[in-house]
Design brief:
Order of helices and strands: EEEHEHHEHHEH
Shape: globular
Number of strands: 6
Strand order of the largest sheet: 3-2-1-4
Number of helices: 6
Helix content: 25-40%
Structural class: alpha/beta
Distance between the termini: 38 Å
């Protein structure tokens, strides 16, 4: 089963999910991909979601608390990605984007060796089910504009401002 719990962040409610001692979900409850994400994860593991805590969920809560207090600049949570090989490639590369730094979709596409795949990279970025920990909020438009985010642009702005404020500590 996929164990889920809810987390109240300063910028919105998240749903945390774990499967076999790995985090498979840290997603915005009111996100635009909520139902599709839940279905994709349930179908992949061929199981249901049950509201129950686990050690990995509790550790995720603790590390998210530290992140929002400006005391954590990276995460050490075992992850399991549910997606295509291409999506997993994008999400793994997102883990290399440092705290307080933003990159463009074009740069992300270049980093995975597919410089013309900006639209596909943007779609993979949008399908990320492990927000904040896999920092899809750090990807912006080539012109520096804030572009779509599963939790909404105000949440993306909040996260980037939090990291900019605290990035001098890194």
């Amino acid at each position: 089963m996929i164990c889920i719990q809810f987390y109240e962040s300063p910028c919105g409610r998240l749903i945390l999910g774990s499967y076999h001692d790995k985090l498979c979900m840290c997603d915005w409850l009111m996100g635009r991909h909520r139902i599709a994400t839940d279905n994709r994860i349930r179908d992949y593991f061929v199981t249901e979601m049950v509201e129950k805590s686990t050690d990995v969920i509790e550790e995720t809560r603790h590390q998210l608390d530290e992140y929002f207090l400006g005391k954590r600049f990276g995460f050490d949570i075992p992850l399991i990605f549910v997606g295509t090989d291409f999506q997993k490639q994008v999400w793994n590369e997102l883990l290399n984007v440092p705290y307080g730094v933003t990159i463009s979709y074009a740069e992300l596409a270049r980093r995975i060796g597919k410089p013309t795949a900006m639209r596909a990279v943007a779609n993979a970025n949008g399908a990320n089910a492990i927000s904040i920990i896999v920092p899809c909020h750090r990807v912006i438009g080539s012109d520096g504009s804030l572009t779509g985010y599963g939790g909404g642009l105000p949440v993306k702005r909040f996260l980037l401002e939090l990291e900019q404020t605290k990035s001098f500590l890194v």
